[in-house]
Amino acid sequence: MGVLLAVLAHAVAAVAGPWVVRRCGVRGFWWLALVPAAVTVWAAVAAPGVIEGRPVVWAAGWIPEYGVSLALRMDVLGLLMVFVVAGVGALVLGYCARYFAGTPHRGLGGFAGVFVAFAGAMLGLVLADDLILLYVFWELTTVFSYLLIGFHAEERNSRRAAITAIIVTTSGGLAMLGGFVLLGAAAGTYRISAILAAPPAGGTVPVALALVLVGALSKSALVPFHFWLPGAMAAPTPVSAYLHAAAMVKAGVYLIARLSPAFADVAPWRPVVVAAGIATMVVGAWRALRRNDLKLMLAFGTVSQLGFLCVLLGYGTRAAALAGLAMTMAHAAFKAALFMVVGVIDHATGTRDLRRLSGLRRAMPATCAVAALAAASMAGLPPLIGFVGKEAAFLALTGDPVALGGVLAGSALTVAYSARFLWGAFGAKEGHAPTEVAHPPGAAFLAPAGLLAAAGLALGAGAPALNAFTAAYVGRYPPGPHDEPLALWHGLTVPLAESALVIAAGALLFRRWRSVPAFRFPLDAEHGYRVIMRGVDRAADQATRFTQRGSLPVYLRSILLALLLLPGGALVSGGPWPHDVRPWQVPAEPAVVALVCAAALAAVLQPRRLGAVVCAGVAGTGTATLYVLYGAPDLGLTQFLTETVTLVAFVLVLRRLPARFGERQVAGIRVVNALFAVAAGLVVAGVALAAVSVRTAVPESALYPQAAERAGGTNIVNIALVDLRAWDTMGESAVLLVAAVGVVGLIYGRRRPTLPRVGDATGPVWAIPGAPRIEEPEAVRDAATWLRGAETLSPERRSILFEVAARLLFHPMLVLSAYLLFSGHGSPGGGFAAGLVTGLALTMRYLAGGRYELAEALPLGPGVCQGIGLAVVAGIGLAGLAISGEVLRQAVLDARLPLLGEVHFTTSTIFDAGVYLVVVGVVLDILRAMGAELDRRVEREHEEVATA
Amino acid sequence: MSNALVPLPVVLPLFAAGIKLAIGPRLARTQRGITVGVLALIVVIAAVLVHQTDAHGPQTMRPGGWPVPIAVVLVVDRLSALILLISSVITLAVVVYAIGQGSADKDEATPLAVFHPAYLALVAGVSDAFVAGDLFNLYVGFEILLTASYVLITLGGTGARVRAGMTYIVVSLVSSMIFLIAVGLCYAATGTLTMAQLAGRLDALPDGVRLILQLTLLVAFGIKAAVFPLSAWLPDSYPTTPAPVTAVFAGLLTKVGVYAMIRIQTLLFPGDRLGTLLLVAAALTMLIGVLGAVAQTDIKRMLSFTLVSHIGYMVFGVGLATVAGLAGAIFYVAHHITVQTTLFLVTGLIERRGGSTSLTRLGGLARVAPALAVLFFVPAMNLAGIPPLSGFLGKLGLIQAGIAAGTAGAYAMVGVALLTSLLTLYAICWVWNRAFWGERRQVPEPGQVIEGRRGIGGTAITAAVPPPAMTGPAWALVAFATAFTVAAGPMVDYTRRAAAELLARAPYIAAVLPS
């Protein structure tokens, strides 16, 4: 439970962090530091048990189907890392309280929250006992570090460094995730302790390990991923001290240490770790030697040391592991301390450039002492833990000339840059006045660094105690020839001589560092990274330019191409070809088909919009004729009516459009388009033939006549629409209605007109601008009024004949539509056709009497019609559900009523009435918007022209 | 088993849309209450359906009470119930946001007259597609949602929206026509459209014809789901619409296409005959999509490209045709609906606060609006698949499925999926670097009109600190997505059961056609 609480406490503190810092100012960091401090104390209390081999564990299920659990486990390695992570974390948080004091930083609250969250994630990482859970924390540390590196967000360098860090470490992380899943699949579990107890072998395991190593190397900034770390120095110094010395960069090292006991001997592990580690150690130290920015010097030094740690912890022998653990502790202590010292110097003098620093040894003696102690440990001088670790390392690598040679060279360089660091920061330089110290550091500022430097001394002195401490981990490796316990003094041994040699060589290098060539490596990883990212950006631009043309015809061609290649390809390669194809069923068929085809072709070729609309109408009418020929009068009727209403709508709209189509495409493209269209048509025809030819089952429509009888009717088309498939009809009503709402909305824009009544009429409607005004003959004025609205029309637009006809035909048409509505169950008709007939009647009134006549014909808003219609359709569904438990269940009522006699009534008629209302509403909507509203606008424009 | 809840997610919004149209622009408060109330009710219904399908198997309803195959049949199995639940949650959140935006823009007439009815119809159409047990009814569901989307995409009728709408509408009409042709072909070949019955009859057809039918349907759904190379229409048409519309489009519409693909690939055409084709399409969709995202300098366009890219993850799962693969795809659908919707809503907030969505004009927002920064960062990292958020969990499921499949193609897909994840992160970090970090740009004063952007009804948008009615739904969705992580165990379990049910086919068929 303790392990869980340790992580959770950080999560809570992270959420509370911004609030705490906002409330208490920088002092809030002290409060936040209590959390990792408490965890350190808890770990110390738990330590004896852990050292004796009783790890603290806690586990709960998370995603059993993935095999992922929330398993935490603190064994010796975990304990050591907890000390590093939480112990250094607490000190760095305490350091923050002084580092940020005095300078107002907006966003410091957020910084505190993210920092603590990072500490929590890091803690989770070293405690996780499940590979996937470990990955979760791993990526969280990456994301939080991205936010921390970019703290100075207004600086371009910070932002670039942050994105480089997150991309490099995540690319490694994702590879590692792949490796983890492979490893988990091979082992049958993600539980780390179980995998280590029974490591899988063979098959995909080497691949998995290689991928895991990519992750570890990228996180720990090893060659060739090392370049992100120096860039990350753009972060505030506490971040560098913690993330880039003690915590995050140790994650990769930790993972290697975690898996080495089981996998050090498996194929790519040791060669990769040793090669990358040695290269990193030497390259990092080499480059550190020539830096002038103290922080960058430490950054390259960190890279170098991480390489060293990887070699030791990935080497896979007891001695190397022991040395690795000692060096891990040593590095966490001295490197964090040195970073903090740099922060102190920066604060005190305003610079970190060693060329501008001089004589600080006298001005800041305490700081100098702390730095000297820490740097001595870094250089491996006795009696510090750095010395103990290095001795052990030299011993452990004895017999491996490559590794030993690399480590010796790297160590010599380390001695040199350690010395140069001290000299650069504190030494008095010739011809250079002592640097002015504006703010000498207080004790509290220096204390965290001092404590860590002192820890290096204490650990060195108490080195023998570490043997017992690490025994449980080190014991997992097979015994080897160099298993000596850690100690300050082993006698006069070869490693001691090597140490002396390293120190001497380092001292020499320091004296003559200027003669060390600024060797530029032929393979510059950072350059490689930039090249890759530029390549990605360029590929992105080009791929997008190629695929995203922004041209509708191109998109349509690619869709048709898919249709031609896929179903078309299947048809050509293996589709069954029907053998007995009857060219037609009725002799009239080919004639009608020819007409439809010709009309379609003409529609495409028409240069004028009106012509195209008429041709399309002819094609539609031809199709309707085909329905009739096939014995579907209902469909034919509906299609004819639809064509008529559509034509009216088109003509109304065309008033506002140019008569001709815009610029045509170039001929070549038109030919290509035509080819695509013809090919698509052929493919569809072909697949239709193939599909029809293979049917053996009885179609479900064969069941319809019987069902229609049960539904109380004989017209199966109508019964399918209002009963059997009423669900579809409900949906299609909504389609029709919504389309109308949308189209009309486009015309009205934001203006919602009121119903235009005759009384509101202002000028003569449809007046021809510029035409001479015609006085209405007296006879006309005195004649009986057939249509009230027509009186608002401009005289030259009136047609008495039309008005009379409209007046006389209107009601018979309504009667016809009522007949169609109610007779649909037994004979052709139905709500849809009925609604269209009513709509045509209204259209006639509008055409004869103008827009004010519409309200005379039907003083209702279209929304009301449509809305009630849809509500009725859906309401019948709900009623059926409420009464019978089945949505849209229709009932048949047969009753004897006085006067009417036998009445046969089905509730589906109500449903059909709903459809009727929807259709009437839609037609009315179209007339109001495309007719009346456009009329109004045309007239207003004419008025404006006239007044201008 | 007839279940009265099954039709309600379709009927209720249609009924409400009818009532609202009849009321007209009056009673604004009541009308908003109706919309929110109906959508909230659907959330409850969907939650109950999730429970019922899990406990008792697929739930059905035969409208009109006619026996199958005469009637249309509605079926909800685990897959549809889960997607219905997720989609109902996000439609509810988006409508609350839209109402908040309408109040903020003092633009309420158009929303009531056009937006609300069209939005409710969209919800009905999406629900209908999820509950359809009949291929033609599935088409009707698509028609409802597409027609509603035509209206929503051209809302306000500004020039940019009509131009973008043109591409969208024409491409959608073509895809609908291909779908309708496929429906006709299926009926011609088998004499039925009830999917449970089609399942058996298609098995008996000659191989060539089955392949033709399958490919035609896949092309139709591939356009709707925006699978490369049928995806180019999407980034051209989504970014111009008002934030809530883009949000709901991005969240839902492509996923209806993915849903249809899952349905036909499991129920109608079992087996993995076209697995390789789907995997190749998935890989191209992921890569081309994410490269498009990297190339963008506008947040909305960037998100539209990631939308396309991540469709590839779902197609990857479908192409594997294993329980783990399908389960991963289903989980990813749930995740992606939520996260894309959230991000587009948040982008609407960014536009309002920062005056733009262009990365060349934004900068330093994290300091100006820290809460907004968090609101963007969490779902953005979720999209990039950062653990432990749901995007990671979906990706993990798919990677596991790919590795378990063990074929060379599947391994390659795992690599592509990881690379896509990395590039998504890259694109996201660029947005963060430039919009939220970076030099402080002048944010517009509250009340200042934002150029080139229009609200729901085509009114001008004014800069402001977004009101709680707009930020609230976004926070709620972030919390909702976080719940996926907390409840990952049960949820993954559920998706596995859903996938197993799909691959078994028998439970679905038995529920529709009791022998």
TrEMBL record, chain A:
Topology in the lipid bilayer:
Multi-pass membrane protein
KW Glycosyltransferase (keyword) present: no
Q: Which residues form the NADH:quinone oxidoreductase/Mrp antiporter transmembrane domain?
A: 128-397
Offer a single GO CC term for the protein: plasma membrane
Q: Where does the MrpA C-terminal/MbhE domain start and stop, copy by copy?
A: 670-754
* Major localization class: membrane
Compartments, record wording = Cell membrane; Membrane
UniProt keyword annotations, A-Z: Cell membrane, Membrane, Transmembrane, Transmembrane helix, Transport
Please identify the protein, giving its name as recorded: Multicomponent Na+:H+ antiporter subunit A
Residue ranges constituting the MrpA C-terminal/MbhD domain according to the UniProt record: 594-658
Matching InterPro entries, A to Z? CPA3_Na-H_Antiporter_A, MnhB, MrpA_C/MbhD, MrpA_C/MbhE, ND/Mrp_TM
The protein's matches in Pfam families, at most eight in alphabetical order, are given as: MbhD, MbhE, MnhB, Proton_antipo_M
Membrane-spanning ranges: 76-96, 108-126, 132-149, 161-187, 207-229, 269-289, 296-315, 321-345, 366-389, 401-423, 444-466, 486-510, 554-572, 584-605, 612-630, 636-654, 674-694, 730-748, 804-822, 828-848, 860-883, 903-927
Q: Where is the Na+/H+ antiporter MnhB subunit-related protein domain?
A: 802-924
Q: What is the lineage of its organism?
A: Bacteria, Bacillati, Actinomycetota, Actinomycetes, Streptosporangiales
Amino-acid biosynthesis as a keyword of this entry, yes or no, is no
From TrEMBL, chain B:
Give the location in the cell.
Cell membrane; Membrane
* Superkingdom of the source species: Bacteria
Per the UniProt record, one Pfam family is Proton_antipo_M
List the Gene Ontology MF annotations in alphabetical order.
NADH dehydrogenase (ubiquinone) activity
Biological-process GO terms, alphabetical:
ATP synthesis coupled electron transport
Membrane topology category:
Multi-pass membrane protein
Swiss-Prot/TrEMBL keywords:
Cell membrane, Membrane, Transmembrane, Transmembrane helix
What is one term from the GO cellular component aspect held by the record?
plasma membrane
Family as reported in the entry's similarity comment: Belongs to the CPA3 antiporters (TC 2.A.63) subunit D family.
Q: What protein am I looking at? A: Multicomponent Na+:H+ antiporter subunit D
Lineage, please?
Bacteria, Bacillati, Actinomycetota, Actinomycetes, Streptosporangiales
